[in-house]
Specification:
alpha/beta; ten-stranded mixed beta sheet; Rossmann fold
Length: 282
């Protein structure tokens, strides 16, 4: 544990500074919420037990709109570490944002959590993610993972990741300004990911457009815009990349404010355990 402690200390000191600066930031428009990428510690942060029986969750983070390089480590330290999960964080290189220098650690993961936006890693790095998915290992994606490895202005990457892996159909988003009213899909109310969630809660994330899911997807949550009630978009679902495994969960939620919402935190926590085929935590 002595080799891990410095990383934990640096991470939590950095979180205290970063989250203080971040506090009160408006998340109505993505361009108004940007992390200072150069301030991030560029190491594979690890914390949690290193016992042989500990499940290993690897986070792949590369986006500059929703500050998940801060919210996800904090969530993990508060929700996952106390439940005996070992966590590793792989950050995009701030000087070469399409590259993830420590991505080889994905091979050690029992679960991969993706929070990436429009990055096209080198093919050898992308091949590691493809290999992970082909092996039928579990994956959780939040928010911009639906357009993780695709660029409008550049060919290559993995633009089919949304359809092939997540089972989604991202078509942009509704304009900012209105909160999203999130409701449980009634026929799935007993799904373990939804255990203990209210039938309805609010999110300040502007609503993503996802209407046509893959035939293998199981919708769990639906969202509508507050006010005019427009929208009717899927905001959370599960998918399965192969019959004998490949559990996948995705939610288009995941803004800074969502991480302060108990219903979202419970959703993400239970999705992580479900993806690893573990009982929901108490």
């Amino acid at each position: 544990m002595s080799r891990i402690l410095p990383a934990i200390f640096l991470h939590r000191l950095w979180l205290a500074i970063g989250l203080t600066v971040m506090g009160g930031a408006s998340t109505g428009c993505p361009s108004q919420v940007r992390a200072d990428q150069d301030s991030l510690p560029r190491l594979g942060l690890r914390f949690g037990p290193k016992k042989a029986t500990s499940r290993h969750v690897v986070f792949l983070i590369g986006e500059d709109e929703y500050q998940t390089e801060k919210t996800l480590p904090q969530f993990a330290s508060e929700e996952l570490e106390p439940r005996a999960l070992r966590c590793t964080f792989i950050f995009a290189d701030p000087k070469s944002p399409n590259e993830f220098p420590q991505i080889a650690q994905v091979r050690e993961a029992d679960l991969l959590v993706v929070s990436v936006r429009r990055r096209i890693p080198p093919e050898d790095q992308l091949a590691i993610i493809r290999e992970y998915v082909r092996a039928g290992k579990p994956l959780v994606g939040i928010r911009t993972a639906s357009h993780a490895f695709a660029r409008r202005d550049k060919p290559g990457g993995w633009p089919e990741f949304d359809q092939e892996v997540l089972g989604g159909d991202y078509k942009g988003h509704h304009g900012p300004g209105s909160e999203t009213i999130v409701r449980l899909v009634e026929v799935q109310k007993n799904h373990p990911i939804l255990k203990g969630l209210p039938r309805e809660f609010r999110s300040k994330s502007h609503l993503y457009k996802n209407q046509k899911l893959a035939s293998t997807a199981v919708p769990l949550l639906q969202g509508r815009l507050e006010g005019d009630g427009s929208g009717d978009e899927w905001v959370a679902w599960t998918n399965q990349t192969r019959p004998d495994g490949g559990r996948v969960f995705y939610t288009s939620l995941g803004s800074v404010d969502d991480f302060a919402e108990p219903s979202f935190r419970r959703l993400l926590l239970q999705a992580i355990f479900w993806a690893m085929d573990q009982d929901p935590p108490k």
